[in-house]
Structure prediction request, 155 residues.
Amino acid sequence: MTIRTSFLALAALAAAFSAAPPAIAQDLPFPVEARQGQMKLMGLNLGTLVSMARGDADYDAETAQAAADNLVALSSIDQRFSWPEGTDNMALIGTRALPEIWESRADFDEKYQALGAAAGGLAAAAGGGLDQMRGALGPVGAACGACHDTYQAED
Prediction:
């Protein structure tokens, strides 16, 4: 995956995180609301970094570092409470979580841990300059995409 392709993938993920909720809504269980909130916060911080990487916003080392540090914190949240069985898109309207999450929970957890590792690499690079930050964004995008491609339904 090239850096440009990674940026495009990250931009698409950031847009997906900020997408409007479905027109048909129901009250979602609190764990679903919590995990969706976590994903929105990830999207907010990732979007800040992608905007800098694409040149849509000026690179600011302090802001980049804060966003990357937030991604580390968000990706370190223990997920056991956020994914109770029966909260997939076949059981609930308003979630795109596929049932495969619960069928392949170990793989799902590995993918989440890979996101944490990639976020750690990004945090180590984000404040060191635009080029360093750009280089560290690719693995974060790949980690996000690996999970979403497997475990998230399309709109």
In short: The helical segments are 3-17, 30-54, 61-75, 100-103, 105-125, 130-151. Residues 15-23 have pLDDT under 50 and may be disordered. The chain is about 65% helix and 0% strand.
